[in-house]
Write a structure and sequence with these properties.
Layout: E1 8-11, E2 17-28, E3 35-37, E4 42-46, E5 53-54, E6 65-70, E7 73-78, E8 85-87, E9 90-91, E10 94-97, E11 101-105, E12 109-119, E13 129-130, E14 133-134, H1 138-150, H2 167-176
Parallel strand pairs: 4-5
Antiparallel strand pairs: 1-2, 2-3, 2-12, 4-6, 6-7, 7-10, 8-9, 8-11, 11-12, 13-14
Length: 193
């Protein structure tokens, strides 16, 4: 089974596009204060220099944890270590975390896992159209920039608006700029279902 790594995009209260990721922060042990922000793919934690987050605690294994960003949070997998990984006092082999949590690695290291939102830097949209959709106002330019950022990803996009606002035309433009552009574009009118 192949693993799909998805950027989690959320819309915060300000209306800006943000990317949800997680930060690892060592809160106790010899490496207290070390931090690592997760990116796409796999993040390795342990004492070996090849890891993304290198720890010096002698009770932490050379390759202790493997962490993967998923659509619903992050998957943390203990790599069959000698001293184990604990979450909430219980030894874990594999766990999916969706919010803040504290992990104990080995005997001395505690690490917080914290969700963080990073503002997505949208380049200014140049031009007056996105596909066949026209728009020159600042809100439309922001929308076009957001759509151009989201279209090539596997992110789900929900378009809402009153009848006649161009939702279908925008959906078709997104489809044309996606990796699925060579496939069919099928319109589903949810109002008639």
């Amino acid at each position: 089974m192949s693993q799909v790594h998805t950027q989690l995009l959320t819309d915060d209260a300000s209306g800006l596009l943000v990317e949800r990721t997680f930060r690892l922060r060592v809160v106790s042990g010899p490496d207290q204060g070390k931090e690592h922000v997760l990116d796409e793919g796999t993040t390795m934690v342990g004492t070996h220099a090849d890891n993304d987050l290198v720890l010096t605690d002698a009770t932490v294994s050379r390759y202790h944890l493997e962490i993967r960003v998923r659509r619903d949070g992050i998957e943390i997998r203990d790599l069959d270590t000698t001293n184990g990984t604990k979450h909430g006092g219980a030894k874990v082999g594999q766990v999916v975390l969706t919010g803040q949590a504290r992990l104990r690695l080995g005997k001395h290291t505690e690490m917080d896992v914290e969700p963080i939102d990073i503002n997505v830097d949208l380049e200014n949209w140049h031009g007056d159209r996105f596909g066949d959709v026209l728009g020159t106002t600042p809100p439309m330019q922001r929308l076009f920039a957001q759509l151009s950022k989201a279209a090539p990803t596997e992110a789900t996009i929900l378009l809402q608006g009153e009848t006649g606002t161009g939702k279908e035309a925008i959906a078709e433009a997104v489809h044309q700029k996606s990796r699925r552009a060579k496939g069919p574009f099928v319109v589903v009118d949810c109002g008639s279902i």
